[in-house]
Design goal:
278 residues; alpha+beta; Jelly Rolls; five-stranded antiparallel sheet; three-stranded antiparallel sheet; 12 strands; 24% helix; 14% strand
């Protein structure tokens, strides 16, 4: 399996600054398109759908998961990705992926997929409440999660249900989580108004060619959306797990730098339209 090396180019300084500021960075050609094609062949079969027969695409989303062999393992462990993990999380501060987690395969559909709400992905608390996703927790130390990652295994355009990313929302989340300390907050404490940004809202869509990977801050607010295109979307969304608490082993990593900067700066002011009295 390939590993990171000093010869891998990794991220440019401007990309690392973007990650700290905006909460995500896009890596084109993070893994080979041929790996994506081989993986899709497996996923089509396991989804019970025929790529040439839209009549077999009967649900808006099918969830498949935990592929840990062949093209899946290779895609998750390219030298470029390993180098980027070192740069964002810290050398020896993360665990190599042995699978790609869940694949939410989204099909063109007018049905509501039922899972398109804004959220962040929790990092711990699953053992205490395995059936209650809203009870899972996140804390200011990013316990249990070093990065959110989006692996595009098909070409994804703006109509193909790209994941929506709320730019800079990781900084708002840092300020919300800080008062809760080590215990953190449950997802149900953050949904709704708890996920609203403090300043102007700017969203981007995680589009790209097969082989693209988005590396996102673990506090980044994001959401799915319905598929309004013509070809199914294949995407994996695994976390990158920390090897140890990041504040102990990688305090100067960009992941934690973004949190410190958010806590040090005054929150942005909401823009309020003036009211003129007659």
């Amino acid at each position: 399996m390939p590993t990171a090396s000093s010869s891998s180019p990794g991220l440019a300084p401007a990309q690392i600054r973007q990650f700290v500021r905006d909460g995500y960075v896009k890596l084109d050609h993070a893994f080979d398109a041929s790996l994506a094609a081989a993986a899709r062949a497996r996923l089509w079969a396991d989804a019970g759908a025929d790529p040439e027969d839209p009549a077999t695409w009967t649900r808006p989303v099918v969830r498949l998961g935990w592929y840990a062999d062949g093209p899946f393992a290779e895609a998750a462990n390219t030298p470029l990705l390993h180098r980027a993990f070192d740069q964002l999380v810290g050398e020896s501060a993360w665990l190599p992926r042995d699978s790609l987690g869940t694949f939410p395969v989204r099909f063109p559909s007018r049905e509501d997929p039922g899972d398109a709400g804004w959220h962040i992905d929790p990092g711990f608390g699953m053992e205490a409440a395995p059936e209650d996703f809203l009870a899972w927790r996140t804390n200011i130390h990013t316990q249990g999660r070093a990065l959110l990652m989006l692996f595009l295994f098909s070409d994804v355009g703006r109509h193909d249900a790209p994941t929506r990313l709320r730019v800079g929302s990781h900084r708002t989340m840092a300020r919300r989580l800080h008062p809760a300390g080590e215990a953190g907050l449950a997802l149900r404490d953050l949904v709704g108004t708890g996920l609203l940004p403090e300043g102007p809202v700017r969203d981007v869509q995680a589009t790209g060619m097969a082989g693209t990977v988005y590396l996102c801050h673990p506090f980044l607010v994001h959401a799915a959306q319905p598929h309004r295109g013509t070809r199914p979307r294949f995407l994996a969304q695994p976390p990158l797990l920390p090897a140890a608490p990041l504040h102990e082993v990688a305090p100067d990593s960009p992941v934690l730098t973004a949190i410190r900067e958010a806590l040090a700066e005054p929150p942005p002011q909401r823009r309020v339209r003036p009211v003129f009295l007659r």
